[in-house]
Specification:
Length: 271
């Protein structure tokens, strides 16, 4: 149902009302007919424009009703994901309201990530949201990144500052590498300022499939950062080296529970 609501909302914008029938013309002399036709056409165009604007306004009101319904979901995960999807559908038509929905989704995910139990959002029943909700707030930030990269980067930096770990940057890169490799590379570079992630080789390999040159540059930077550390972690150096030896560049990369997995079987593990 959560997925259907944004689709319905988007469909409302793709189905404008049929054009009004043309205004009846009175018979006149041949000399007056072209002028009257031009005037009637302008009137018809104005009427159709006003009808489309009215229909658009009515559709936006309906979509806001969908949003109010989603906000009442007791389970946090479908509530947040529903707001993200609805904001995606609304962005081009009503950007200010879409931004408001993303703010609501982010605040809900962030506030619940600080809660030890999920009684508030799950009605006392445990769900996938109750253990660790950092991934859910990051999912909102990824949704924001599709429309406003600067805003998303600000939120990601706040996550890093609060967690005292740059892993949030690498996590953002993992979520973006398939659909937006440019932004993913920026987050990798930000994360590399404090050293390499344990799965940096797999992350860079996924980026290499989209932009080999940038991936190679980031790999060299990861080695440089490790070399500059007073006591580099040998395990991190070993993991970074896997970038050179990773096999089968044609293998499909999928994200499972926030981790990049190489799928050599051709079977989607998410199905």
């Amino acid at each position: 149902m959560v997925r259907l609501l944004p689709l319905i909302a988007f469909g409302l914008f793709l189905n404008p009302p049929a054009a009004h029938s043309q205004t009846a013309r009175k018979p006149g002399s041949p000399a007056q007919l072209p002028a009257r036709q031009s005037s009637d056409q302008r009137v018809d165009a104005d009427e159709q424009t006003r009808a489309l604007e009215r229909q658009k306004l009515e559709n936006l009101i309906r979509v806001r009703g969908f949003a109010d319904h989603i906000k009442e979901f007791r389970n946090l995960t479908p509530r947040v994901r529903g707001l993200i999807a609805l904001a995606d559908a609304l962005w081009k038509e009503d950007e200010p309201y879409a931004r408001k929905l993303l703010v609501i989704a982010y605040e809900a995910a962030r506030s619940s990530s600080r809660t030890k139990d999920g009684s508030t959002d799950s009605g006392g029943h445990a769900n996938s949201s109750t253990e660790n909700l950092h991934w859910l707030s990051r999912e909102v930030v990824v949704g924001i990144a599709r429309h406003d990269a600067a805003w998303a980067k600000t939120l990601a930096t706040q996550e890093v500052d609060s967690s005292k770990s740059r892993e949030a940057y690498f996590a953002m890169a993992r979520d973006l590498v398939v659909d937006d490799p440019r932004q993913a590379s920026q987050y990798i570079e930000m994360g590399l300022e404090s050293g390499a992630s344990q799965d940096i080789a797999f992350l860079l390999d996924a980026l290499r499939r989209k932009d080999p040159g940038v991936a190679d540059q980031l790999f060299l930077k990861s080695l440089q950062n490790l070399a500059e550390q007073p006591s580099a972690d040998p395990y991190q150096l070993l993991m970074a080296g896997y970038y050179i030896f990773l096999p089968d560049q044609s293998a499909l990369v999928v994200v499972v529970r926030g981790h990049l997995i190489f799928n050599f079987s051709g079977v989607n593990p998410l199905d």
